[in-house]
What we know:
Number of helices: 11
Number of strands: 10
Radius of gyration: 20 Å
Shape: globular
Low-confidence stretches: 1-13, 20-42
Strand order of the largest sheet: 1-3-2-4-5
Order of helices and strands: HHHEHEHEHEEHEHEHEHEEH
Distance between the termini: 37 Å
Amino acid sequence: MARRRQADTVGTSIFPCLFVILLTRCSPVGCAGGSNSASHSTEKPILLNSIADAEAFVSGAEVAVIGFFQDPQSPEAEQFRLAAGQVPEVPFGLSSSAAVLSHYGAPANTVALFRTVDDDRRDLDMNSREVDAKKLTRFVRINELRLVTEYDPVTAIGVMQSSVQFNLLLITDKMSPKHPERMRKFRAAAELYKGKILFILLDSNLKSNERVLSYFQLKKSQLPALAVFHTPDDQHDVLTVGEISTERVQDFCNRFLQRMQKKEDKSEEKSLNEEL
C-alpha cells in the first residue's frame, strides 16, 4: 500500500519550486505547528487488542498512527508514548497483538501512519537507536496529509511523496471573517476527490507565502484563488473567484482533469501511430 512517486516525476513538478520558496522564508521547525483536524486526547495511546479494533481505529480518522510493539514496555514503546503526547490532534494506537502485527505485515517496533486522503501508509522502523520521540514526531508531521492540508515546509515533504499527482491550492487569507465558510465548502469538494486530487490551503496572510503568489502571478486583490496542477509535467491552471463554492471548485477540477485526460489520450494515440 505504501506507494512512492518516482524521483524523476518529483524533479519536474511545481512543488519542489514552491518548497524551495518556502524554505527561504520559514524554517521547518517554526512552521510545523497547526493542523486543521479536531483535537484528540492522546496522552496515552489507545490499546488495540484485536484486528477489528485496529481496523476501526484506522478507518475512524483522516490520519491515524499505530505503534506495533511485541513488548509494550520497551524503550521504543516509551518513545512512542512521548511522541503521542506531542501530537495531540493525531490519534495514536498501540498494539502488541501477534494477530494485529501479522494482519498489517508489521515487524515488531514499527510505527505505521495511515491516511485516508490517498489511501496510503508510511512505516518507520523504531529499532534504530537514532529514532526517538522527536524524530517520530517529525515523521508524523511530514506525512499527516488530510482532506485539506495547510501548506508549509514540513507538509510539503509529504505532499511531494504522495502518489496523487493532481494538487489543488486554495490561496486565501485565513484571517478573513469569510474563511470558515470558505473552508467548509472547500472541504466538501475535497470529499469528492479523495485519492484523485490533494486539496491544499495556502494562507496569503503569511509573508512566507508572498513569493508563491508571485509564482502564480496573483495579487492579493485577486484572492481568493484556486490553482490546480499536474505534478509530473507542470501543467497548471489558475482561477480567481469572488467567493468559494463547492460547485465552482468541482467544475474547475473537472475541467482540468478532462483537459489532462484529452492530452493523455492524444499522447497515447501519437505513440501508437509512431509504432505503426
